[in-house]
Each structure stands twice: as structure tokens, then as C-alpha cells.
Design brief:
mainly alpha, 100 residues
Length: 100
């Protein structure tokens, strides 16, 4: 089903973008009617263009938010043994003497 939908959408987009003039002529044609000539005045009035003068501007993309955050969970940290730390821990591979 998705493949059929993709083919139909691709075909419609092809007609809409590439064959736009043919599609518009087909949509405006009536059964049994003969094509009529269009005056140059009617053609020129059908297209309207608006042009604006643009200037470069610096856009500040920073967003300032004020508020308060709260943790999703809380943990309690405690040691496995009781006692006091009386010196800094030694580095891995350091030589340890008696009494250290």
C-alpha cells in the first residue's frame, strides 16, 4: 500500500510541477468547447508581482528563560564503613610503606 501511495504522490507532483501548463489547460477545458484566443491585455493582467526591498539584519538567537529546576529523583550518599578521612587517597600503583 505505501508503494502505491508513493507512486500516486510522485505522479501528482510531476504533473503539478513539470506539466503545470498542461494540467491547468486540462482543468479549465470543458467538454465540446473550442479553444478561444486570449487578448494580450487579459494575459498581462492575470499575473501580478509584488517586490519588496530587503535588508540584512542580525538576528539574536539567544533565548532567556527564568525558572526553577527540580531533580527527577534524589539519592542518599553514605560510606560503607564508619570513620574519618585523615589523609588524601594514594594514586594507583603508588608504593605504600608500613603505617601509611
Amino acid at each position: 500500500m505505501p508503494l502505491i501511495t508513493a507512486v500516486l504522490v510522485t505522479g501528482f507532483l510531476y504533473l503539478l510541477v513539470i506539466q503545470r501548463d498542461t494540467l491547468m489547460a486540462f482543468a479549465q477545458a470543458t467538454v465540446g468547447a473550442e479553444p478561444t484566443a486570449v487578448d494580450a491585455d487579459q494575459t498581462s493582467s492575470a499575473i501580478r508581482v509584488v517586490a519588496l526591498q530587503s535588508t540584512a539584519q542580525t538576528v539574536d538567537s539567544a533565548v532567556i528563560l527564568r525558572g526553577r529546576t527540580e531533580a527527577a529523583r534524589q539519592v542518599q550518599v553514605q560510606s560503607e564503613t564508619s570513620g574519618l578521612v585523615i589523609s588524601e587517597p594514594l594514586r594507583k600503583g603508588a608504593t605504600v610503606a608500613t603505617g601509611d
